[in-house]
Design brief:
The complex is a heterotrimer of chains A (245), B (487) and C (167).
Chain A (H helix, E strand, L loop, with lengths): L1 E4 L3 H5 L2 H13 L3 E3 L9 H6 L2 H20 L4 E4 L2 H13 L4 H13 E3 H8 L8 E9 L2 H6 L4 H7 L3 E5 L15 H4 L1 H11 L3 H4 L3 E4 L2 H14 L4 E4 H5 L5
Parallel strand pairs in A: 1-2, 1-3, 3-4, 5-6, 5-7, 7-8
Helix pairs in contact in A: 4-6, 5-6, 7-9
Chain B lengths: L3 H5 L1 H9 L2 H22 L5 H17 L1 H14 L3 E5 L2 H15 L7 E4 L3 H5 L2 H7 L3 E4 L2 H9 L15 H12 L7 H17 L3 E4 L3 E3 L4 E6 L3 H7 L3 E7 L3 E2 L4 H13 L7 E5 L12 E7 L3 H4 L16 H5 L1 H6 L10 H12 L16 H5 L6 H23 L6 H18 L2 H16 L7 H7 L12 H12 L3
Parallel strand pairs in B: 1-10, 2-3, 2-4, 4-7, 5-8, 7-10
Antiparallel strand pairs in B: 5-6, 6-9
Helix pairs in contact in B: 3-13, 4-13, 17-19, 19-20
Chain C lengths: L7 E5 L2 H14 L5 E3 L3 H6 L7 E3 L3 H6 L2 E5 L2 E3 L4 E5 L14 E7 L3 E2 L2 H8 L9 E5 L4 E2 L7 E2 L6 E7 L4
Parallel strand pairs in C: 1-12, 2-3, 2-4, 4-7, 5-8, 7-12
Antiparallel strand pairs in C: 5-6, 6-9, 10-11
Classes of the chains: A alpha/beta (245), B alpha/beta (487), C alpha/beta (167).
Chain lengths: 245, 487, 167
């Protein structure tokens, strides 16, 4: 199966191991991964802050790149991020009034798959062979959870990982406080929310916190490091591809 | 009411709240408990999602035909003897109620006005207006009574004194009412009961809110647990109910839907202790006020009807579930919002009622997590409205700044931000520029220049910033494809 | 359902049994005086009480009385709710002011759900009645640290006597 990969600007620049793990994982499952380096950003930072014209401008470019890949034979667009996948869901409405653009946005959106949902829907999860020895908790990133309904998929995948002990916390679906520019514009509230979320991490002696969104992972990792909590932050692709070492 | 000076203090109020350990503990206990109770209560409904859909459909019909439903309600209500008043704004509403207070006391100031909890009453600053006319308004809901004694405003829609510990309340009662120090909440409650009973017995005017007004029958419904609404609407000579115009529902039977949703969402109860359904004043030989009045308050609500995306705000039934679910509210509490309506609903309602410029911090006090949307019994998509308001605020502030050549402190950050996003948009819509920007960012980071940027400083105050690795994803993929000999 | 809302209740198979129950309740709860509504049935059930039983009590009397007794026109089993139609009976204050509220409810007047009760209220006579009160348990608050306190402004206790086999 040939798939286009949209990694997101954060994965690209700040957490490339998540992107590389995604590529490795998909290729090990017989997917042909088509990464078009002309991709930039889904437009969410501007959209969430109220700058819709600017968001449209950047989204227009990303849509044309992805649409071209679909026309060239890619059957799906896979994204190792729930928040960008959700953002592509907003684009048809963002281009309301422009039939051509909203049509293109709809086509692209209809082919977008968040990674864990792609793996559990389009691939047989039994084929994924991976191991990770350690105590792991899963953080449900808000956009993936509440806009896309992704909750079971990552857990189903993690349950197949040999040696991985999944520890659920009550705060698994609490917002980590990232929220895009919120994390810096309301840095104090953001940190207070984060501290509440991770308050049990230390006592649970976790080896890793895993999520499907590197934005959340940056936030959580950044605070754990500042507080001296010795737990790693890993993208789920890194666990599944066995590249977390 | 929110004055501009109140809004200007948002940052200060947030800082105060975040530093308040006692508030923190109180909020944490309360919101955890509410969430648990709500979960248990909704488990008793077979098709909770279907019920929410049904309620939202009713509310959408009301919003789309608000004038028709209000007219129908007013006609039916008047036919049953209810006096209907229309108030465009807070001033009109207060004048109407102050006049009723005067009448209830034989044309003299000094009317004893017993007040049942009403957020709408808070919104119009009714107590101040009544006091200014020489009347004596007494809050009778225990939480509101506590707040009134403390000279504060409520910090939660359902539990006004949620931010106060038992000890703080006990100390307040000792200071203001002269009772013996105690840590027994039942004694505190008994004190309030005794004092308020006297006031109820001598009351001239009773003021209540309205949970639902039914167009089909001209009825109003008020619900409660304490009994103070029954007291306030039974004992005085005149009862006036104040209602936001969006509270009308079409049919009497619709109550079955909302009475299943509201108590469960708000307090985790299957039903609150009392519901009073009043359809006009009672007959001469019956107990109850001789006159019932209703004030239909607009106060900016009809403006909301104009906007397709944000008019769903008017579906709100004031349950408070969004407050309990909101991770931001859990950290900062209600007072930080600086407005009558706090939490997620406050963040979208206040700017729309009072003007975007008056409350522009509120829609940005959200991480857009969507927990509120999940718990809203009428499925208001609060994040969608927040995003809509953010876009409108940005649009308004930059066009105003342009039009007025405003170089003040308020607009400078926004102008800088707009410039930053303009540059960002130009850069990220062209791959060559994007790559250039990435290269420059790496250089800047290597030279530690990034630490000069305010966003980076805000981040690193409390969190380590992840160092971008030497090779980005696209660089790595480029290398891979070269190694494979891909074109 | 009544148990879950801190309302006590008992079933009586006859009016005589109800009379005995009321007398027993008054002794148990140390009721010194009782006020009763204008419902003939309610008054009949109180006719043999040893303690003073006020009929047509005025407000100041009601504020001093230990218990108020009335009938409930309908009940809702789903929620343990009493429905008082104040057009049919003068029981607005007798069910509110005294600290103990005793309600007489016929089994045959109990509906399973809120929906049918609402329909019923909206289809008889002058619909709906001028004043209706739904009562589910005793008055309560959680305004102090969310601790439940029973007995605020309304009655501190409710006791329901469910009459079976009564015409």
């Amino acid at each position: 199966m040939r798939v286009a990969l949209f990694v997101s600007c954060l994965v690209d620049q700040v957490w490339p191991s998540a992107g590389l793990a995604t590529v490795d994982l998909l290729e090990s499952l017989d997917c042909e991964v088509d990464f078009d380096p002309r991709q930039t950003c889904c437009g969410q930072p501007a959209f969430n802050t109220g700058y819709r014209d600017e968001a449209r401008r950047v989204a227009t470019h990303s849509l044309s790149v992805l649409d071209a890949q679909l026309s060239a034979g890619c059957e799906a667009i896979v994204l190792p991020t729930g928040s960008c996948t959700a953002m592509f869901g907003h684009l048809p409405a963002l281009f309301e009034g422009n039939a051509e653009m909203s049509g293109q946005a709809t086509r692209v959106r209809n082919h977008c798959w968040e990674l864990t949902r792609f793996l559990t829907s389009k691939i047989d999860p039994e084929r994924i062979e991976s191991s990770f020895t350690g105590r792991v908790t899963y953080h449900d990133a808000c956009h993936g959870l509440r806009e896309l309904g992704i909750r079971d998929e990552p857990r189903a995948l993690l349950s197949k990982v040999r040696g991985l002990e999944l520890i659920e916390t009550d705060s698994c679906d609490s917002c980590c406080g990232f929220g895009g520019t919120f994390s810096v514009k309301q840095a104090d509230i953001s940190t207070a929310m984060l501290d509440k979320k991770i308050e049990d991490y230390e006592s649970l002696k976790l080896d890793a916190v895993v999520s499907g969104d590197v934005s959340c992972l940056m936030q959580i990792e950044g605070r754990m490091k500042r507080r001296g909590i010795k737990t790693r932050a890993l993208h789920i692709a890194e666990i599944l591809a066995g590249t977390s070492a | 009411m929110t004055s501009p000076s109140k809004q200007a203090g948002f940052r200060e109020r947030v800082q105060t709240a975040l530093g308040d350990e006692v508030l923190h503990g109180a909020l944490r206990n309360a919101t955890d408990l509410f969430a648990e109770r709500r979960r248990a209560a909704i488990a008793s409904i077979d098709d909770w999602q279907g019920l929410r859909d049904h309620a939202r459909a009713i509310k959408d019909d009301v919003i789309s035909h608000l004038d028709q439903h209000l007219e129908a309600f007013a006609d039916k209500a008047e036919a049953r003897g209810l006096c209907v008043h229309w108030a465009e704004d807070a001033t009109q509403a207060c004048t109407i109620i102050a006049d009723l207070a005067l009448r209830s006391n034989n044309g003299k100031p000094g009317a004893t006005v017993v007040k049942a909890k009403s957020m709408t009453g808070e919104e119009i600053d009714l107590n101040e207006a009544l006091e200014a006319k020489g009347h004596d308004p007494i809050e009778t809901d225990l939480g509101e009574y506590i707040i009134q004694l403390a000279g504060e405003t409520p910090s939660h829609i359902i539990v006004p004194a949620i931010h106060k510990t038992k000890q703080q309340i006990a100390d307040l009662f000792t200071a203001k009412l002269g009772i013996e120090p105690t840590d027994d909440e039942r004694k505190l409650c008994a004190t309030a009961r005794k004092i308020l009973r006297t006031r109820f017995a001598e009351s001239d005017l009773g003021v209540s809110g309205v949970n639902f007004a039914i167009a089909e029958t001209g009825s109003i419904l008020v619900l409660e647990n304490e009994g103070n609404i029954r007291m306030s609407t039974t004992l005085p000579k005149i009862h006036v109910a104040i209602m936001g115009i969006e509270k009308v529902i079409p049919k009497f039977d619709d109550l079955a839907v909302f009475l299943r949703l509201l108590p469960r969402s708000g307090t985790g109860q299957h039903l609150t202790t009392y519901q009073s359904i009043l359809t006009g004043p009672v007959k001469e030989d019956r107990e109850g006020p001789r006159e019932i009045h209703i004030v239909l308050l607009d106060n900016g609500r009809s403006k909301l009807l104009e906007n397709e995306h944000s008019k769903q705000t008017l579906a709100c039934i004031r349950c408070g579930a969004c407050l309990n679910a909101c991770p931001v509210y859990q950290q900062i509490g209600g007072h930080a919002y600086g407005s009558v309506y706090p939490g997620p609903i406050g963040a979208i309602l206040t700017p729309q009622l009072e003007g975007l410029a008056q409350a522009e911090d509120l829609p940005f006090a959200s991480s857009l997590c969507g927990a509120c949307r999940d718990v809203c019994p009428v499925k208001i998509d609060i994040p969608e409205v927040i995003l809509d308001l953010r876009a409108r605020i940005v649009e308004a502030s930059t066009s105003t700044a342009k039009a007025t050549h405003d170089r003040s402190d308020r607009t400078r950050p926004r102008k800088f931000e707009r410039l930053a996003f303009r540059i960002w948009a130009m850069t990220f819509s062209k791959p060559i520029l994007a790559n250039l920007a990435y290269g420059m960012a790496r250089l800047g980071q290597g030279l530690r220049l990034h630490r000069l940027l305010p966003p980076v400083r805000a981040w690193t105050k409390t969190r380590e910033l992840r160092q971008p690795p030497a090779t980005s994803f696209r660089q790595a993929m480029h290398k891979r494809s070269k190694m494979r000999g891909d074109s | 359902m009544l148990d879950k809302v801190e309302a006590s209740h008992e079933r009586c198979e006859s009016d005589d049994a109800a009379r005995t129950a009321i007398a027993r309740l008054c002794t148990e709860k140390k009721i010194r005086s009782l006020a009763v509504s204008d419902a003939a049935h309610a008054r009949d059930l109180c006719r043999n009480l040893a303690i003073p039983c006020h009929q047509d009590a005025d407000r100041s009397t009601l504020l001093e009385t230990d218990a108020g007794l009335c009938t409930a026109q309908l009940g809702i089993s789903e929620t343990g709710t009493l429905v008082l139609d104040h057009d049919q009976e003068r029981h607005r204050e007798v069910s509110l002011l005294p600290p103990l509220h005793i309600a007489i409810l016929r089994q045959s007047d109990i509906h399973p759900s809120l929906s049918t009760v609402l329909q019923s209220l909206n289809t008889r006579g002058e619909s709906p009645p001028r004043a209706v009160t739904f009562i589910t348990g005793a008055s309560r608050t959680a305004d102090i640290e969310l601790t439940l306190i029973i007995g605020v402004h309304g009655p501190k206790a409710v006791h329901v006597i469910i009459l079976e086999n009564s015409p």
